[in-house]
Amino acid sequence: MTREAxxxxxxxxxxxxxxxxxxxxxxTDRWLVTVDGVPVSRVSTPVAxxxxxxxxxxxxxxxxxxxxxxxxxxxxxxxxxRFRRAGLLHGSERRTAGRVTYRPPLTIQFxxxxxxxxxxxxxxVLRPALVGWMRWPIAAVMLLGGIALVVQSGEAMTALASxxxxxxxxxxxxxxVCATFAHEVAHGVSLAHAGARPRRAGVMLLYxxxxxxxxxxDAWRLPSRASRVVIALAGPAVHAVLAGAxxxxxxxxxxxxxxxxxxxxxxxxxxxxxxxLVPFVRFDGYIxxxxxxxxxxxxxxxxxxxxxxxxxxxxxxxxxxxxLARWWSVPFGVLSVLVPxxxxxxxxxxxxxxxxxxxxxxALLVLVLQVAILLAVGVPVVRWLAAGARKGRGRVRFLLxxxxxxxxxxxxxxxxxxxxxxxxxxxxxxxxxxLVVPADSAATVPLDDGTPVVLSTRGILGxxxxxxxxxxxxxxxxxxxxxSAFAPVEVSGVEVDAVAVGVIDLPVDAVIxxxxxxxxxxxxxxxLSHVWSTHVADPVSALLASLFPSLDDxxxxxx
Length: 559
Known about the structure:
Blueprint lengths: L2 H4 L13 E5 L5 E6 L2 E7 H9 L6 H8 L5 H13 L14 E4 L3 E6 L2 H12 L8 H17 L1 H8 L3 E2 H29 L6 E6 L2 E6 L10 H28 L3 H21 L7 H9 L5 H18 L13 H27 L3 H33 L3 H21 L1 E13 L2 E7 L12 E6 L8 E18 L6 E2 L4 E11 L9 E12 H21 L12
Parallel strand pairs: 6-13
Antiparallel strand pairs: 1-2, 2-3, 4-5, 5-7, 7-8, 9-10, 9-15, 10-14, 11-12, 11-15, 12-14
């Protein structure tokens, strides 16, 4: 079967969509392709001439003869297929981003379309501060603040690994929300200052987390790469300045509580900066890299190259023309798949852990969330597999390779050992230390007499081990536990309902807080068993138990 027969989606005489326009770019040899006024790509003059000639009456063969005689029919067909997938051809148009937009794999945006007017006002207000010499004090705060944070790293790690007063948590959370808003304002104002327009702005769910956003696509109209990079990095600069200022203030603070809060804020802002600069996700670092090398749609093009390389290796597909003619295109595309996948997995694990003790409602949310993620991630995977079946050397090879890969993944997951642990809490009750779980939790801790337990603090970003002991099961009974047993906060005099399921023997010289995390070590189990139990069996069991409650459930003792 020939390549032409494999791409029937492109018409014999293709026609450019009526919403597509070609505008002269800042570079003399590049053109800006816009859809409904939104820049979507930068193309060379021959490609622009090809698009102009697609009037619905010129055949594909004639287009190739006139504009790409050095390319084979298969290579030209791939170019037309990229036009189609980009929504540039008649019949393949994409819906213009509006008030609510979904961007795969896991981003939902809720936007206002009045962003140009809003940022025009903000630009007029902030213009006096947008002067060139301001970069020097900003750089000084970043540099000196970074040094100050390194000097205070010991105190910072202690703050991150310890439960915090609720007031500290609320203050830091409020400042971070305001900083994130200022982060996006910086993008929009710097874009307006450079002479372009922020089209949309609003809030979004990004990899299961809430965030603000500003659409800076119009930056591709700017002639200077440096200007586009500055716009992309203006947001992280806000968090970097705040982190530096908080670190310097902590260095000068006398009050220990104030210093702890400032260090926590500095660490949180520094983390935002580091994560934002990761270039393999659609964060600011990716936009900056894309602008610096003047290659739009970098992730999509490199992932297409990586997908083509994988199809060639696995299914024997023909070599396809590179979407990005750079040696690092394939490895960058692979990382652009793996890093977002890791972020989604990390977010899912945290969500499952947070909802595991929330009863049937939490179990239902876990299952619904996982189905949504499977659909969002599964669609591009299915499309890639369909392309592999279509472009490979035969269905027998496709089925054999596919079955081998599935068997290898399941087999590896079935033999890779992982620690079988259960996370609970501990609470000091006089001379005894109790192993406790939330009162409304459906989770169980299968204790045997002499099960090893590690006690630690509960911190915002980490835990600090404080003691190791041996747990002995007891008949479940109600018990009031400090809130720090289940959350990384401390509220004096506030306790939560819990169920004591065991008692922990500790060394006589152990010094522990009133409450914290208890990690029960049950041995090891396979990765497959862990995933199945945590993500399927446990939430399904909790949900079924609420729908079909047993009539003879034993009643727990109350004290």
